[in-house]
Specification:
- A hairpin with a 2-residue loop joins strand 2 (about 120-130) and strand 3.
- The chain has 13 helices and nine strands.
- By secondary structure, it is α/β, with parallel strands linked by helices.
- The strands form three sheets. A four-stranded mixed sheet has the order 4-3-2-5. A three-stranded parallel sheet has the order 6-1-9, with no helix packed on it. A two-stranded parallel ribbon has the order 7-8.
- The relative contact order is 0.17.
């Protein structure tokens, strides 16, 4: 299931990367040496340094330096701002990963929703990504599912139940091509247009559109998403809609934090959310030549 790209680590290595990020975030005050960080993953210094650099585009020491500087700046601002505002101040709202893509969000029509996929062909498959194995499914209109799955059979059965009358065809090759189009672009690729074909209630669609508007460039809050969706004060309902997002990463629900700056829950796991935020942080310390060319994001919603 490994995508044919040097941009991705093998899914089996993702847990090592996520564990290293957790270790650095927890121990940065001790300024651990590379040997200690590598030991936390069970790898040698050489292999760990190479793996982390391939995943993040920066070395573990560079990431540790960024985490340390962010914490120092947060402490300086603590008396004057929230933790989230301090995170913004040190650049977490800097170059957003979605700025490397052209994303168009297109809602499933009421007729298609009622028909539960009748007449649709959905091609799905599994691919390695920077955040572990993903199941990616697409119709002729666009990507309809992107999720990080530990149990492939259960994930495929859930997709079949959700699109009960559609014709499902498995193609890992298609999924790997799509993954390259999404994650390869953010490591210096051309950023081909990505179309999303989502199925949800009117309220969910409003929230997912709001996520594209306010969360594409970096961390935001549930209250900010609620305001952008036109339902200020409805944070609990917004949180439910955020959790129901069927397309991870491209609809950036991982960027929604609690008001105090803590991670909060995430459908695909807190450790993966932490890794996604770390990957975005690495954008800030990449050189322009390493970061690749940035493209604008087009966001539209038709019902």
């Amino acid at each position: 299931m490994k995508a044919n790209s040097d941009s991705f680590v093998d899914s089996r290595d993702f847990r090592r990367i996520a564990g290293a990020i957790r270790f650095i975030d927890a121990h940065f005050r001790e300024q651990p040496r590379l040997a200690a960080i590598a030991a936390s993953t069970g790898l040698s210094e050489f292999h760990f340094n190479r793996l982390f650099r391939r995943w993040a585009g920066v070395t573990p020491r560079q990431y540790l330096a960024f985490v340390t500087a962010r914490a120092a700046r947060r402490a300086l601002l603590a008396e004057h701002s929230s933790v989230l505002e301090a995170a913004y101040a040190v650049g977490l709202s800097g170059p957003g990963r979605l700025h490397d893509l052209l994303v168009t969000l297109d809602a499933v029509t009421p007729g298609e929703l009622k028909a539960r996929g009748a007449g649709l062909e959905i091609r799905y498959g599994f691919s390695d990504t920077p955040f572990g194995t993903a199941m990616i499914a697409s119709t002729a209109r666009g990507v309809c599912h992107l999720g990080f799955e530990e149990r492939p059979r259960a994930a495929a059965a859930e997709l079949a139940a959700r699109w009960e009358h559609a014709r499902l065809t498995r193609s890992d090759e298609d999924a790997q091509r799509t993954a390259l189009g999404i994650f390869g672009a953010v490591r210096g690729g051309e950023g081909a247009p990505i179309r999303l074909a989502v199925r949800g209630t009117n309220f969910q669609l409003k929230v997912w559109q709001a996520l594209l508007e306010v969360a594409s460039d970096g961390p935001t809050t549930y209250s900010a998403v609620a305001a952008a969706a036109g339902v200020p004060g409805a944070e609990r309902a917004v949180g439910n809609a955020v959790g129901a997002n069927p397309i991870a990463w491209l609809i950036p629900c991982h960027n929604v934090l609690r008001a105090d700056g803590s991670l909060g829950s995430y459908r695909w796991g807190e450790e993966r959310k932490r890794a996604m935020l770390a990957w975005a942080r690495c954008d800030i310390i990449l050189t322009p030549s390493e970061a690749g060319r940035s493209l604008p994001v087009h966001r539209s919603l038709s019902v």
